Amino acid sequence: MKLKILSYILGLLLLSSLFFIGFLLSVNKEMSEERHTTLYDQNGNELFSNNHWISIGQLPSFIVEYLENEILVDRTAELLYPSQDIKKMLSKMLLKHSYTEEEIFEIYVNKLYFGNGLVGFENASQYYFERPSKDLNELEQIFLLFKSQVGESMSMQQDLEVFLAELMEKDYLLDYREFSTLNSEVPDLLEGLNRRNTNYQSYVQQVTKELISTFDITEGELYRRGFEVNTHLDRDIQNNIYETFQDRTSFLEHDQAFVEGGMAIVEHQTGKVIGLMGGREYYKSTFNRATETTRQPASTFKPLMVFGPALETGWKPDDLLKDVPMKFGDFKPRNYDYRYRGEVSIKDALVKSYNVPTTWLLYKIGLDKGLEYIDKFNLFQIDPKDGYGLALGFTSVGTSPLSIAQAYTVFPNEGKMQEIHTVESVNFQGEVAYKTKGEEERIFSKQTAETVTSLLRSVVTDGTGKAAQIKGKQIAGKTGTTSYDGWFVGFDDRYIGAVWMGPDEVIPENRMNLDEDKYAPKLFKEVFKKVE
Predict the structure, then answer these.
(1) Packing angle between helix 156-169 and helix 176-192, nearest 10 degrees?
(2) String of DSSP letters for 353-388
(3) Among 6, 183, 270, 350, which is least packed by CB within 10 angstroms?
(4) What Pfam families does UniProt report for this protein, alphabetically (predicted)?
């Protein structure tokens, strides 16, 4: 009996040892593996290369000098496994006893994460400057060091200038004359980053967001893991959006503020996100105005909050609404032209974007009824205290073009909202690790959806969205404006496009006139007339 127990214990110890050795070997392989995560467009083409590996002898001396100040064993282990304590401990042990300093350095520089899905110095150099790191000038080298430390930046110029100052004051790698010279060259450097890769950055950012949520790992771990990610990106459409955003005539010029923009294009039956643009100067700021902005949706909210629910509860397009001076609690709506027409039909109220009758209609169906329907979308952070201002899209939190695009899938999809996604599937070591399942949510009846779609077509043919008309295409859509926001969300028989434009800062001096019948619908038209 004792012999059996001893054999059992020895067997367990042997199995544990084999498991530990296997685990150790897998950590060792992960550390030294040269393969990183690759993203593919909808046609199976790489978005950018992540396959360059560099030795210490190929790195510029300035980069080597900066990184030699790091405690590389601890930093490398932390870099590779920030959220996996056991692997972090094992990697430290391996690095100390099985790798030379030069080998550790090589792992470190090739596993650093630079944001935008980029891993390793050489990949970042090829991405940003389209040449090897050994050919970079001093400021370009510093930019890569900056990206390896900071990653994404809301204000690239300001943050890079701070980094330069730290190189002088803390690291003593620059003297004052070098600092002054390099600091003066920062604006030209950033302008030069506006290359062919720039137009994919906002899309890659959304892919990253979805994958982090799916696999519950950090961004750096995600792109070091070696996944093969198949996305829905349509390069032609993405390039089309990018070129339109680069055209200054697409945007209002304003004395006080730079007018920014964001756009999302979604295939409404499947929820596939085929194009995203996060801003006109995304290479200067990684704030994604297609997905992260929270701006008041203005009149684009009317079909979701008021007209859809009203039609669902029995109202008809020809039913008359009051259009006279009224007050709803503390909220007193006004029409954009400050005129009142006594009575207007539901159709005219939506097509001409009249505010007073729209608010009165929400009052008649009940604020709670409007909130009941808007809650079904599960896309908007709504504060009921905003009251009847919600009828006109005056929300405390606001929303993004991507969320509005998803909400509007309800109309061409016969009342069902389609969940949106940039990722088709993820493969890992030859196996499918994840495949997106597009969920649907019934919001309105088929009849309501068809009626609203018909009304939205009239918005484009006879109402505030005329600037979005495209020869040979039947476009349905809705405009929206505030003193700081211009919106248009529209769709054809296949795609939905949502456009926002305005100043980043909502301050009095940035107020502007983003007319409903200009700018946003015009930009939509410029993009969609090339979309097949």
Answers:
(1) 160
(2) T-HHHHHHHHHHH-HHHHHHHHHHH------GGGGG
(3) 6
(4) Transgly, Transpeptidase
Report pTM: 0.90
Contact 42, 61 (CB under 8 A): no
User: In the structure, what pLDDT confidence band is assigned to residue 291 with cuts at 50, 70 and 90?
Assistant: very high
Using DSSP bridges, classify how beta strands 431-435 and 342-345 pair: parallel, antiparallel or unpaired: unpaired
Q: How far apart are CA 413 and CA 461, in angstroms?
A: 21
Give burial (CB, 10 Å; 0-12/13-18/19+) of 2: exposed
What are the structure tokens assigned to 526, written together? 């410029």
The tally of CA atoms less than 13 A away on the side-chain side of residue 65 is 11
Structure confidence by residue, pLDDT tens digits, 367-397: 999 999 999 999 999 999 999 999 999 999 9
CA 422, CA 438: separation in Å to the nearest integer? 11
Tokens 């685990």 map to which residue?
23
Distance CA 493, CA 269 (A): 10
Return the closest-CA partner of residue 293 out of 406, 155, 399, 156. 399
Beta strand spans in 212-278 (E): 228-231, 259-267, 272-277
Domains of the chain, with CATH numbers? 35-193 (1.10.3810.10), 236-528 (3.40.710.10)
Alpha carbon distance 195, 14 (integer Å): 56
The answer on pLDDT for 23 being more than 50 is no
Looking at residue 516, its pLDDT comes to 59
